[in-house]
Write a structure and sequence with these properties.
Layout lengths: L1 H23 L20 E7 L3 H14 L3 E7 L4 H12 L6 E4 L4 H6 L24 E2 L2 E2 L5 E10 H6 L9 H13 L14 H12 L5 H6 L5 H17 L13 H9 L5 E4 L4 H7 L5 E4 L12 E5 L2 E4 L6 H12 L1 H11 L2 E2 L13 H8 L4 E2 L1 H4 L4 H16 L5 H16 L2
Parallel strand pairs: 1-2, 9-12
Antiparallel strand pairs: 3-10, 4-5, 6-7, 6-8, 6-9, 6-11
Helix pairs in contact: 2-13, 7-9, 9-17, 10-11, 12-13, 16-17
């Protein structure tokens, strides 16, 4: 009996110790002071994103975010702007397969907002980082559906060594001087200019701004009210582009097939003296040719003497799919983009001009004039931002007509007529 009693007492002592250990231990899945020991943010989630910037450019942001929220991984997808991105996103939206996070741009804002594809972000706390002048492009009826922390300005990159080789020691201040520079480069056996004719070009944008917008900032408003025509504001632009660039074979029809990547690479390798671009090209130029000596200038207007416009606009905005299953995590990502760390990481990877409240952007020396004289001075223009409706349909028609003009299939007058016809057609639907 004594042996049985001792055994029973031993069993009780073991049970007591076990219960004590269980009672003092932290419940499974919690950390200090009862906090969840799972990675911050909760269960493992894979967010899908269709990015305007490529994966290399977005890596600092993605890695920074995942360091803070290790439970969230990414299905990263990329489509280059503008045409390819708009088309891919549109297909995904129509097939109900859009990513959790995607881009709203000037070209697709109406379709996305009117279609109810994006969550209203107006009252999210992180929206306080967004400057007021960036909101109209991403808003409707006073509600904002995407967050942007950037703005951009772009002009013509030029190769300083090739300019010097052709005996050019002064940047052109007028359109006429710009054409003289192009012809001088050409005479020296140097390809003057490459341009991507698969989009509304920087040259067209800035010529219009110099010729029309600078004199009548409400021209686009009048155009869409039927008080003006494309011929009124764009007719001279198409005539100058055709007469001076196409007829002089500064731009040639074979450039229609060039991609942005090809153009940037050719410039970085010193095979062309100029190309239109923006801050997003800086990292590629520096990595491809660290010794490249280059700058950026505005596209000068006819008979202008300084004060010329750059192409530019608020940056594209990050939106959350209204049908996402991971709204909380998607909003966390945009919140991170708006944070000081996220802003720094985004600038590091993309070279974008940060316009968020309280953040001083580090602008590359080549971009200083575009940033100060263009973006900050408000001397930037992009038609897809200024056009109140049918942006993508008009942009597509613009590109088709410009390509036809480059191959001498149509006249400048017919380009204007085609745009006026497209606007009437879209309004009648």
């Amino acid at each position: 009996m004594r042996l049985k009693s001792r055994i029973w007492m031993s069993i009780c002592m073991v049970l007591t110790v076990c219960l004590a250990v269980v009672g003092c231990s932290t419940p499974a899945g919690t950390g200090p002071e009862g906090e969840d020991s799972k990675p911050k943010g909760g269960d493992k989630v894979k967010l899908s994103i269709l990015s305007w910037n490529n994966e290399k450019e977005m890596t600092p942001v993605i890695q920074g975010f995942q360091a803070k929220y290790p439970n969230i991984s990414f299905d990263f997808q990329h489509a280059p702007p503008v045409k390819d991105y708009i088309a891919k996103l549109q297909t995904m939206l129509l097939s109900d397969s859009a990513t959790d996070i995607f881009i709203i741009a000037a070209e697709n804002r109406n379709e996305i907002i009117d279609g109810g594809y994006a969550i209203d972000l107006t009252d999210q706390p992180f929206m306080s980082a967004m400057i007021e002048s960036n909101k109209p492009m991403l808003s409707k009826d006073g509600r904002t559906y995407a967050f942007t922390q950037t703005g951009w300005a772009g002009g013509l990159y030029y190769n300083k060594e090739l300019f010097a080789k052709a005996g050019i020691d002064k940047l052109p201040e007028t359109w006429e001087q710009f054409i003289e520079v192009c012809l001088k480069l050409k005479a020296a056996g140097i390809q003057p200019l490459y341009d991507n004719m698969q989009d509304v070009t920087t040259i067209h944008n800035t010529l219009f701004a110099n010729l029309t917008y600078s004199k009548d900032p409400k021209f686009d408003e009048k155009l869409f009210k039927g008080e003006k025509t494309f011929a009124d504001g764009w007719g001279e632009v198409f005539k100058l582009w055709k007469r001076d660039l196409i007829d002089n074979e500064i731009l040639t029809a074979d450039m229609i097939g060039l991609t942005n990547d090809q153009i940037v690479n050719e410039f970085a390798l010193g095979n062309v003296a100029m190309f239109p671009g923006g801050p997003w090209n800086i990292n590629t130029l520096e990595e491809t040719n660290p010794d490249l000596q280059y700058g950026m200038m505005a596209v000068p207007g006819p008979n202008a003497t300084g004060g010329n416009y750059f192409a530019g606009a608020p940056g594209v905005g990050y939106a959350v799919n209204s049908k996402t299953k991971y709204k909380k995590e998607a909003l966390l990502f945009i919140e991170y983009l708006a944070s000081p760390e996220g802003l720094q990481k985004f600038e590091e990877g993309t070279g974008a001009m940060i316009t968020a409240h309280g953040y001083e952007s580090k602008v590359h020396p080549a971009m200083e004039s575009a940033y100060k004289d263009g973006l900050l001075a408000g001397k930037v223009y992009l038609p897809m931002v200024s056009w109140p409706r049918h942006q993508e349909a008009l942009r597509s028609q613009f590109v088709i007509s410009i390509q036809d003009l480059a191959v001498h299939k149509v006249t400048p007058e017919q380009v204007s007529e085609a745009l006026d016809k497209k606007l009437k057609e879209m309004d009648s639907k």
